Amino acid sequence: MLEIGKKTETCIVTTKLYDELCKDYRFREGLKACINCGTCTAICPAAEFYRYDPRKIVDTVQRKDDSEIEALLRSETIWYCGECMSCMTRCPRSNAPGKVIMALRNLSVKLGYFTESERGRQIYPLTEAINRNILEYGYCVYPDTFRFEDHPESGPVWKWHLEHKEASYARMGANYKGKGPGALRQIAPEDMSELKAIFDVSGGTERTALVEEFSRKKAEEMGMSMEEYRRHTFEHCSDIHFNND
Amino acid sequence: MIYQGKQKIWSDYQKDIPDDHWYYARSCIRQSFFPASEKYFLKICRDLLGKDICDNEHHTTCGGIAYHSDTIPQETAMTIVARQFALMTECGYDNLVVSCITSFGNYTETIETWREFPELEARIRENLWKACRREFKIPKYIAHASDLVYKFRNQIAENAQYRLVDKETGEPLKIVEHIGCHYSKMFPHKGVGGAEYPCVLSGMVESWGGQVIDYPERRHCCGFGFRQYLVKANRGYCVSNTHKKFESMEPYHPDAIITNCPGCPYFLDRWQYVIAEQTGKTYGQNGYGIPVFTYEELAGLVLGENPWDLGLQVHQVAVEPFLDKIGIEYKPSEKYLGLNKEDLLRPEMPQVLKCH
Ligand code: SF4
Ligand code: SF4
Asked: Which pTM value belongs to this model?
């Protein structure tokens, strides 16, 4: 955990955040110099849907004002981006607001600020689902954990498919849970151990634990069990996010 | 060859895709939703085109979905990528062909970032050695699997049993193409045709007899948005983006959509179902949707593969009107049977969207 995360109350943090962002390669690649032209906002699918303006975010961090950066890290705003990187193609100054967002999110998680916004808290169900899929199965997305109840939009055809998973995958030529190569093969234990070791040496394990720790605190504060908190953060959507103008 | 004038400008958008010897990296999403597409990609490359493609069982997810959902640090994503490179190196290959646009972006970004920050590459090499005792060479070439299908599109056309043509009128079918954001929006020079003139899919469509439709929101995102789909509370973002695209393409009456990324066909297919059930609106003819295909599925269809071997039965939007327009033969009664013709019952029918 970062030292500065503990010191927010005493405001020692206020000169450090910009420097912390600069340690993130995505930040260094994503922000050269913004001329505030707004091209990124014009092309951004999130800006149309949410109360979200990538130009303002890039401008805020460019000003290096740590109190404003801290407000961003605690805000809903940084969680609206879809990381489509449409902005990266179009910025006339070769910035990539989507990458700046990735760096901001990374710092928000490290400092535990993500639990202060509804959209930030979603890092918990995301981490729980995706990192578990990776470490248990070797896939980011995996049929055994793709529950129809959580995905009614997958349609009656996918409900049928999931009810007949083995036979349906066999029909489509997959090697579902099989040995050897092929789609959806079972990834061998020695390969899974390597993935786990990669998580251990590269900060993935530490990150998962940190998200869990901050989320546990927040769940307690909200008077929820971890399962209630997971469901709530996965499903609850208040109406403060949308760009209804 | 020395290019001049317009030819020179256009040559900047071309990719000199190696002809043979590829190491294949599969996609979590394509394997889960379109496993037959990966099977047919390998079949086309190996059996029809006679190419050497290594399908190594030891590789895993590239971590791209986790990376773009912000659940793993950049170093973790890069070390997973480095392990994939190591497996490729150990198998004796230099060319990596990947089955997913998110992976394609992830591998490309990793290499581009290392180029700018060599100290990061050194650290990732250390990580990989510590974790797996492996070393790697950076691939000489990274292609998306569709780049290969594009490169060999004319050979596929020469072997085709069907063309993308209306059998009644003889007119080319109208096809919408969707290349997926991470194919060329991040690193335009890595995609065929760049971000301005991406032709990886339109080249296939034209070569196989169809006509590509241009429409205002052609390059708009499908709306996946990683966390925007993976968290149930956020999915309004996804369906709104898809809705915007369908409203924009509707006046052009497309017969089908061809996609590059494995996520986009799932979203463009399923959100049509949701829009139909929620609002009563359908975008195809007579209450049907517009069928959405992966490029492997479309290649398989023109080559005369059985639609149910291609996995078209797990699309929510019925593909039959499209097959009928071309005159592709299929057995309706076998649509939902298992591999050995066992009865697997049938899915329920949606209330609004017409299906078979
Ligand atoms: S990456 Fe984020 S900020 Fe950039 S265009 Fe996409 S949604 Fe908008
Ligand atoms: S497009 Fe680039 S220069 Fe223009 S506002 Fe966005 S980040 Fe700044």
From this structure: 0.95
